[in-house]
Specification:
disordered N terminus; 21 helices; 2 strands; two-stranded antiparallel sheet; single chain; Serine Threonine Protein Phosphatase 5, Tetratricopeptide repeat; mainly alpha; about 425 residues
Length: about 425
């Protein structure tokens, strides 16, 4: 009997503590419930409702209520949030009650919830959370980076151009605020002769992330020069980051392509020459320089640039494939055959390469080459190819092999009838 009395007394004591602490104890209980894996939204909500009864003017209670309403899955409708209206009312009440020094907590809470919803692919809910909220609060650089990414991700989900642009602008605004905040910190830190190497790397990595984010939003805005300038900064802070380097190469290629499309061939050549002066063995730049020479109707210079690229990357199948197509378009069939033969050496069992080689031979009027490659191609594929039989019939006729030409033409006809 004594033991039961002790247990009962302990329970009374615990309940007394909860009621004595008021809403703060229930608030703690709600936070604990939200830390569970997965979060226990129902228990958190019950605790918050009791906390609201005890301390109705506690802004943090309403802030957490809003988070729970937005994040809690609706019964029987997994993936959707439960109650937007209640969530907005709770956020509004939290903003009304928050002391001046805590006002920014509401905006931060909104963005934190939106990020979780975005990670769960719940774009509609994420948009609702940050609708009409601007980045007006003072955050640390990491928060600005996350907010910038959030807006950029949401922009990609928009069909309306005006809405998309507004999110891109907000993304740029967040990244720029982060850059403005982190740059003075980096400069001040670098003046310290006794600086900690780990802390230096961490700060520079954050600066690089923010500059790369700014570069991404400038790409989304179509501001290529500004994007390149941003990535130059990112690479300066983090020169070993492969992703930044690849993005910069792509941007530089696009910059040159813009000049080519505008008919500014000589400017494009000069642009790529400037890049090659700094990086003379850059395969991508050599490739694009070749395209710039084609733009200027200078095939010998184009081929010289392409040959340099192939010499540096003889196993680059994408490069060889692109060059094969370019040479065909330029009606330089011998050059096309040379690079396609290199492709064949790399991938001897790839039917598409064998077919292309036969096609190039037909353009070059090398009829025996057409027969050899199309025959090999047909032996490699499971489904018949009517066009290949057509090419063989034409090649046999040119070779004066009339019987073989008739047979190939009949196979082409049978092939089409079977389709």
């Amino acid at each position: 009997m004594k033991r039961h009395v002790v247990v009962f007394s302990g329970l009374v004591f615990v309940m007394a503590v909860f009621w004595a602490c008021g809403g703060s104890a229930f608030l703690t209980g709600a936070k604990v419930a939200l830390q569970e894996n997965p979060p226990n939204y129902e228990r958190a909500l019950k605790n918050l409702e009791k906390a609201e009864q005890q301390t109705p003017d506690d802004y943090e209670v309403h802030k957490l209520l809003a988070e729970v309403y937005f994040r809690r899955p609706a019964v029987g409708d997994a993936g959707k949030t439960a109650d937007y209206e209640k969530a907005e009312q709770a956020f509004a009440r939290a903003a009304e009650l928050a002391p001046p020094e805590k006002k920014t907590d509401i905006a931060k809470a909104r963005f934190a919830v939106a990020q979780r919803l975005l990670a769960a692919q719940n774009f509609e809910a994420a948009l609702r959370v940050i609708e009409n909220v601007d980045v007006t609060w003072e955050a640390d650089p990491g928060e600005y980076y996350n907010v910038g990414l959030l807006y950029l991700s949401l922009a990609q989900e928009q069909d309306d151009d005006a809405v998309k642009q507004s999110y891109i602008d907000k993304s740029c605004g967040a990244f720029q605020k982060g850059v403005d905040q982190v740059e003075p910190k980096v400069q001040a830190f670098m003046k310290n002769a006794q600086r900690d190497p780990d802390a230096e790397k961490e700060l520079k990595d954050m600066a690089a992330q923010l500059w790369s984010g700014l570069g991404q939003c400038k790409i989304a805005k179509g501001e290529l020069d500004n994007a390149i300038a941003a990535y130059e900064k990112a690479i300066a802070y983090s020169p070993d980051n492969e992703m930044y380097g690849k993005t910069m190469k792509s941007l530089q290629a696009n910059k040159g392509d813009e000049l080519i499309e505008a008919g500014k061939c000589d400017e494009a050549i000069a642009f790529y020459d400037g890049l090659l002066a700094e990086d003379p063995q850059n395969v991508d730049i050599l490739y694009y320089k070749g395209k710039a020479h084609l733009c200027a109707d200078d095939f010998p210079s184009a081929k010289a640039a392409f040959d340099q690229a192939v010499a540096l990357a003889p196993d680059d199948l994408m490069l060889l494939g692109d060059l094969s197509n370019i040479y065909i378009q330029e009606k330089k069939y011998e050059a096309a055959r040379d690079v396609t033969l290199k492709l064949k050496e790399q991938k001897p069992d790839e039917p598409a390469i064998i077919f292309n080689l036969g096609l190039i031979c037909s353009y070059a009027k090398d009829w025996q080459c057409v027969v050899d490659n199309m025959s090999q191609y047909l032996s490699m594929i499971d489904k018949d190819d009517c066009d290949a039989h057509d090419f063989m019939a034409a090649a046999y006729r040119q070779l004066g092999q009339d019987d073989e030409a008739v047979t190939a033409a009949q196979k082409a006809a049978d092939c089409r009838e079977a389709q």
